[in-house]
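User: For a benchmark we're assembling, each entry needs the component sequences followed by a predicted structure for the full assembly. Here are entry 17's components. Please fill in the structure.
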Amino acid sequence: MSESPFQSVLTPEDARLVVEGGEPPYFRDLNLDQVVARIVRGYEEYELGAIFRTRLSRTDDVLYRQEVFSDLEVDETRAHVVAFAGAMRTMRRQLAQVEQRYYARERQGWFLLVAATYAEAVTRLDSALAPIELGSRGMRGLRDHLHAHVESAEFKRLAADIASVTGALAAIRFAVNIKGPRVTITRFAEDEDYGAAIVRTFERFRQGKVAEQSSGVQSWPENSHVSAQILDRVARFHSDAFVALDEFCTRHRQFSDALIGTFDCEVQFYIAYLAHCSQLQEAGLRFCHPRVSSRAKTTLVRDAFDMALAQKLVAEGAPVVTNDIKLDGPERAIVVSGPNQGGKTTFARMFGQLHHLAAIGCPVPGTRAQLMLCDRLFTHFERQENIATLAGKLEEELQRVHAILEQAGGRSVVVMNESFSSTSLHDAFVIGRAVIGQLVESDLLCVYVTFIDELSRLSPATVSMVSSIDVADPATRTFKILRRPADGLAYAAALAAKYRLGSDQVGERLRG
Amino acid sequence: MKVRLLHPNRDYELNEKLAPQHEDTVSDLALETLFATMAAGDTRVHQIARDVMLASLDEVATIEYRQRALQDCLAQPLVVTELYELAVGVREAERHIFGSMWRSPTSIVHRSVQVLELFIDALKRVSALRQQAAARFESEAFVNLFATLANELDDEFFAEVDLHLKRLHFRSGVLVSAVLGPGNRGERVVLRAPRERRWRERLALAERSSYSFVIPPRDEAGARALDDIRNLGIGDAADALEQSCEHMRSFFRQLRDELGFYVGAINLHQALTTRGAPICFPQARPADETTLAFSDLHDVALCLTTDAPVVGNDLEATGKRLVVITGANQGGKSTFLRSVGIAQLMGQCGMFVSARSLTTDVRDAVRTHFRREEDATMQSGKLDEELARMSKTIDAMTARSILLCNESFASTNELEGSEIARQIVYALLQAGVKVLYVTHMYDLAQRLHEDASLDAVFLRAPRATNGEARFQLRDGAPQPTSHGEDIYEQIFGETP
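Assistant: Structure for entry 17:
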C-alpha cells in the first residue's frame, strides 16, 4: 500500500469527478447520443450516461483512464472484473429479497445469502487480481484496497461464519404430512420416493426418448404464515443452526465495503465501452489510445470512423469505410467538399466524436491518434424545425454561429456542417469566407463541410478534403474523404463516362 | 419392452413427412397407388407404408427377418390385424378422457389414473391374445415380441399397478420431504410413499417426533399456501403418472406403427392375389454381388389400376450394372422401368414382389430421373430444369444406389442430350451405381452398345402388332428409328 489511498477508478485521488447533468448541446449533432445509448444498453443500473457525457479537463485525468483501459483490455483481467460484477448483481437481487420477506427466519436466510455472495465475489476478485501485472494507478489502488479488506480480521470472521451457518442449514432435511387442514412436521426418514416408484413400475414401456413431464409451476410459498410455521417447527428440531443464524445476522449487520461498491459501479464505464468496441473490432475495425495534449494543435488520426454509423453498418453486416485526418503546422481548419452522399457529414461527425471520446479518456476509432484535449466543443448543423422562411433560417443559423464565435477560444473544437446551404451561392461564399476567417483567427480546430469548393483555398490554415467517387463506377460511393484540392468537375466527368458521354467517347461515337 | 418387428436391433421411428429426395421416386414410380392399397383408408398405415418402403434396408439379414415375419402375418392375418386394432383403439379411446382446463396436479392425477386404467385394460387384452395365439407364430420377430409380453406383463406387474391405484387416493395425507434452500425456503420437495402405521408408532417412541398445527377453516391465504405445498407433492405423482402414461402410450404407438407395416402388406397381398398377379419373396443379395434377374415381373402400380391382363417381363442381368432399354413408343418401356423400381423397393423393405421369381442385390436407394411431360416451357429452360433435377438426384444418391432414367435429356437436341447423358452414365457406372436407362436417343444407345467394356444388357420394346402381347421386352440392340411414325400413322391414318 505504498501509493496514496485509493478513491476511484475513474479519477486520480487528487481530482474530484464533477459530473455534468444534462446532455451537451453537440451530442445529438454528432450522434453521440446514439453511441452512448448503445454503449450503456444492458448497464442501466450503473447510470453511466453522465460519465460518458462529461469531458475531463486535465491530460493527467485522461491518462489515468487510459491506463485503466490498458489493464482492462487484457481479456483475463476484464473477465475477472466482469465475473465480479455479475456476482455483485446477484447480491443486489438477493438484497431485494431480504427487504421483501415478512418472517424473520426467511429474512435471515436471505441475508446470509447476500453476505455469502458478497464474500465470495470479493475473495475471488482478490485472488484473481493478485498474480496479474497491472499498470494503472486505478487498478493497482483497487487491488491494494481489496486485498487489505480481504485480509482484515473482520472479513475473515465473516467468511468463517458464513461457512459454518450455511453448512448447518444445508444439512437440514425434514418431512411434512398434509392431511386436510392438518400439517405435521417430522424429521426426515428415508421414505421411498413415491414418484420414482411409479415411474419404475411403468418404465418398461418406455420407447426411446421421452420428454420429461413437469406439471410444475408451483413452488414453496414465500411470505406465508404457513411456511413460517413449518419453518418454526423445523427450527425446533434443529435449534443450533437457527440460533447461529440469528447471531450471524446481528454480528455482521454491516459487512460490505463502500469503496468496493463504488468500484463495481465505476468500472462498468470501462467494461461497457470495451464490450462495445469488441463488437466493432470483430468486424475488423480498430481502436487506439490517443496521445492527447492540451496545447499542441497537431492532429493526426489514421483509419478512423464514425462510431454511430459503424455500429449500424456492422449490425447490418455492411463494410465500414475508414478515413484519415491530418492537421499540421499552421493548419487549423479542414474544409470538406465534394459530391453529396459521399460521407462528408460522417467525416465531420467523426472529427467531433474523436475529440469527445479522447476527452473522456476512452480509446478512439483508429489505428493511431494524436488529438488536442479541447476545453469546448461546438457544432453547427442545419436545424429543420421551427423555420418559417429561408431568411428566417439564415438568421437563425447566423445567430448560432455568432454565439459559437463569442464563446470559442484557442482550445475549442468546432464542427460546422453544411452551414448556410439554404442561401444563394454568393451569400454562402461570402458568409462562409468570413466565418472561416474568424474561426481561423481564434486559432481553434475546426471542420467545415460545404458545397462551395472555393472556401478550401482561403489561407494556409485551411486544408481541403474531398469526398471521392469511384471513377470506374461513379454510382458507387467510396465514402473516402481524401486530402486533395477540391475539383468540383471530377464527379461530373466520371458520371458522364459511365453513360459514354465523356468528351473522348462522344467524339468516338460521333465518328463511329 | 421392445416391439422390434421391423428391425431385430432397433425401434422403428416413423417419419410422417415425405422427404424431398423421395418426391420424384414416388411420383415417377406411381407409388401412391401402392401406398393407398396398403393403407385401405388408414392414413397412419399409409404414412408407415410410404416411410418403410422408401427407407430401403441395406442388410440382407434384416430383409430376411422381415420376410419371415411377413410370412407369419400372411398365415395369421386375423391375429395381426386384431393386435393392430387394439393398439389403435387404446389411442382412440384415450381421446375421450378429458382433462380439466386447470392443469392442477390433482386434476392431472385424476385424468392420468383414468388413462392408466384404460391402458391396463388394453394390456390385459393383449396378454389374452398372446396366450391364445403365440404358439402359431414361428418368426424370430413375433416369437420375441410374445416372449417379451409374457415376461413383462406378469401377475406381479398387475399387482403393483393395483397398489399404485390405491395409494393415489392419498388416504393418509400427502407426505413430502424437503430441504432448506436459499432464504430458508423449502426446496427439493419430493413426494414420499405413505408411512405404514407400524412405522409411525415406532417413531413416536423416540424423543419428540412430530409437531402439528391446523389451518383454521376461515384462513383462505393459509389454505392456499398449504395447497401449494401439497401440490408440490402431488405434482411429483402427476409428473410420474404423465410420464408413465407417456411410456405406455409410446409402447402402444410403437406396436401400432410396427404392426402397421405388416397390416399394409397383408392388404396389398390380398389385392394382388385377387387380381391373379404372381407373388414371391425375392432373393436379396449383398450389394457387392451385382445381380438383377427375374421372370414374369409385373408392374404392381399397373396391376392395381387396370382390369386388363398385365404382361410380365423377364430379365437376366447377373453381374451387370447397366440396362439400356430402347424401342417403340408405348412398347412398355416405362412400365418395365417402373416394375423394376417398385420391385426393388418392395424387396428391400422385406416385402414380397409381383413376379414368379426375382433376385437382386441390395441398393441403398432407388432414384428416378423421368422426363417431365408437364413442363413444356422453353427448350433451354427445360434442359436447365433437367440438369438441375439430375444434380439434385445425384445429391440424394450414393455409389450404392440404383438410378432409373426415363428419356432423360431428351428435351434438347439429340447430339447434345446424348453427350450429356453419356457422360453422366459413365460417371455413375464408374462410381458403382446401377443404371437402367430408357431412351429413344439412338446416338446414345448406339454409343453405349459399341463400348464392349460396359458389359451392359440391351432390351428393345417391340412394335405393337395385333395378337401379340404388347408389353414384353426382348433382348435387342438399339435400332436407328423409333416407332413414333407407326403410332402417328395409326392415329392420323397417314405417315407423318
